[in-house]
Design goal:
The chain is α+β, with helices and mostly antiparallel strands. Among the domains are: 45 residues, no CATH class; 194 residues, no CATH class. Helices cover 43% and strands 10% of the residues. The chain is built from 13 helices and nine strands. Helix 8 crosses helix 12 and helix 11 packs antiparallel against helix 12. The two termini are 59 Å apart. About 24% of the residues have low confidence.
Length: 390
Amino acid sequence: MSFRQDVHPHELLSPYLDGELEEKARAAIEAHLAGCSSCRVLVEDFRSMAASEAAEAPPPIPADLRGRIRLALDPKRASGGAVLGGWIWSYRLGLAAAAGVVMVIGLWALRQEPSPPVGTAVPAPVVPDTAGDLERPGAGAGVAPPPVAPARPEEKETMKRFKSLGYTGAESPKKSEPVSPPPSAHQRLSDGALPTREAPAPPAASQGREGKTTPPAQTVPKSGSGGSHEEAPMGEPEIARMQAARTAAGAPPSEYGAPSGRSLVVEFPAYRVLVFEDGTIALSAKGYSCAARRDGSSVDPDLAALFTLASPSGEGVSGNKIPAPAGGPVVRLVEPPAGSERASGAIAGGVVQAAKAIEIERRLTVLLQDRYLALIEVRCGPAPRAVRSP
């Protein structure tokens, strides 16, 4: 057994010093130490540590230490310890004998009690086994009703944000009721499909001068505040183009109708946020999709500032010449189609500059946590954990 000079057997040095290695291994270690200065220094350190530990070890306790302490405390008790120990042993032996006698007498007394004769039936407790016994008056007296489960922490936080924002577009949910959409709407939101709404029957198709049939105009709800919706005519081609554009952009469905104006698409690691120029903000995550809008006719100025920052001629940001780090935020500015006031949803504007994208992501995170997350949770239930704790 031998070691190369570039291989240092550090794990064998301690057993070598303790004499636990075999002859071949010990000879190999000594041969390696003869040519390796670093291992020799390590062995010397181990030996000095062992010597210092041996010097600092406490001296052994003398065998007669207890006797000397007892003699120093009370010389008389130290001299008569044997007699005292014998008296205590005799006292304990007497107590044990008395306890044994008491146990024997108790067992004998129990055996003298008469047992019931063979064949005597012991009545069993009455247990109601019919519905009449269970429903008789007084059967359920004294039974407390089941306790009501307390509200979850996220429900309390949602209620607190709801009251602080003064939202009036929907009724305030009760504490005992979970904040969640109807099952059918929730299923449509999870599948990513646009919600369908019942509309009045369209008018009959009219026939033109040349004998061609003109399809009736369809109506879609305009965006507005609160729960009121105003119908505006829209042709089938424009509806199909709008729905296809929103699907391409990944815009979640909402009950406000088609958002208008430009939009910002902000890609976070675990979710996506869409901000529309008319004040609508939409959140899309895995298994969760919802859109909300604050009440009032005026648009949030902080949301409008995001579009000003994202535009090519927007306000400057310090450090916009520094390239964004790898894996940074991706922000896209989406322009509406020419000649239309409604958002296309297609990525037509392009990616926003890296430094501006970082600033937009920072501002949008603050707005989402302070103002808009509570509105979204009131409409669609608690948001995913990644959105609540960025």
